[in-house]
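Quiz preparation item.
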């Protein structure tokens, strides 16, 4: 399997990598074997971390709050450009906290992912940064003798947003890089409206690709307003920031349920009578349907007999035939100009 361009261009610039090394934002597992001496590799993607595990001389960290992250440790810090511009500030702050005095930061990213604009963010903390290479549609920038940060607390990066839907109010945690930061996206709103109009059957719920925990928290609040018994809503997500935010959102709103990190359903055990999702269809800037298609093929193993899967998706995505084939009869609960909410019940 070929490496992303950003990883390939880093290998082309091995000469920049000196001393103890940290890689922040790794997205593929084939990189480490071709790099010298080992070090630490951080990814906010649970599947990438699982694939990286077991590499000799490499410590693997999941996300920005992994307890193994130690300040003042590394001589070279490679920062791969994240999808969200705000997350780059977070990643650079982590890099500076991990750095020893006199360390260097190497920023690598693709042009179409916005490396040109990202350079301004790098120069805001390292004005001396210079471009050292341009290849494979990527740029490599190096900043030597960066100033370390004395403190780094992920809690200080969490923001809170009030969200209202169908007279239900909730407070939602956010971190840079999380889906729909600071707002309720249209697809999730449409799905929530169907939960009010077509209430779920009784029983516990699993929220697949839970993000910041909006679905579970809204259900909790809605049942309170209806004077109905509380539901347990478990959530899973592949992204570290989502897991952190969902746990914080649940805690602030008093929601009952577990939040787990999982690449798809790989780390999930048990069955639920209801499974909800507003699944992702992007990987970086590219359309990627593989996670949702894998979820739909595997979900029936975690769905109680007669159980319901309800999801919202962009209307042009080809999920309806797959739901019908893998789960059971499908109906469209709501549609607008962009999104469709599908409901399927498991075959008896």
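Solution:
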């Amino acid at each position: 399997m070929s490496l992303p361009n950003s990883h390939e261009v880093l290998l082309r610039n091995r000469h920049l990598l000196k001393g103890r090394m940290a890689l922040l934002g790794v997205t593929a597992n084939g990189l480490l074997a071709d790099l010298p001496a080992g070090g630490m590799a951080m990814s906010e993607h649970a599947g990438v971390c699982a694939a990286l595990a077991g590499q000799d001389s490499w410590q693997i960290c999941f996300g920005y709050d992994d307890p193994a992250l130690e300040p003042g440790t590394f001589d070279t810090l490679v920062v791969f450009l994240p999808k969200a511009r705000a997350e780059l500030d977070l990643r650079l702050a982590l890099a500076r906290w991990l750095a020893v005095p006199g360390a260097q930061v190497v920023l690598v990213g693709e042009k179409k992912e916005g490396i040109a604009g990202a350079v301004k963010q790098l120069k805001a903390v390292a004005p001396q940064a210079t471009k050292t290479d341009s290849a494979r549609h990527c740029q490599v920038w190096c900043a030597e003798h960066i100033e370390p940060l004395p403190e780094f607390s992920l809690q200080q990066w969490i923001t809170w947003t009030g969200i209202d839907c169908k007279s239900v109010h909730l407070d939602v945690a956010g971190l840079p890089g999380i889906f729909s930061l600071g707002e309720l996206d249209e697809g999730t709103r449409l799905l929530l409206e169907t939960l009010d109009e077509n209430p779920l059957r009784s029983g516990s719920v699993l929220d697949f690709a839970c993000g910041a925990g909006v679905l579970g928290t809204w259900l909790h609040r809605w049942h309170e307003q209806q004077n109905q018994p509380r539901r347990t809503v478990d959530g899973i997500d592949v992204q570290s920031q989502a897991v952190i935010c969902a746990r914080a959102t649940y805690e602030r709103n008093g929601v009952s349920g577990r939040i787990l990190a999982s690449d798809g359903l790989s780390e999930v055990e048990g069955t639920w009578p209801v499974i909800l999702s507003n699944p992702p269809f992007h990987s970086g800037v590219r359309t990627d349907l593989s996670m949702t298609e894998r979820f739909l093929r595997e979900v029936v193993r975690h769905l109680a007999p007669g159980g319901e899967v309800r999801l919202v998706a962009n209307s042009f995505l080809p999920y309806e035939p797959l739901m019908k084939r893998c789960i059971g009869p499908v109906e469209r609960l709501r549609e607008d100009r962009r999104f469709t909410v599908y409901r399927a019940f498991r075959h008896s």
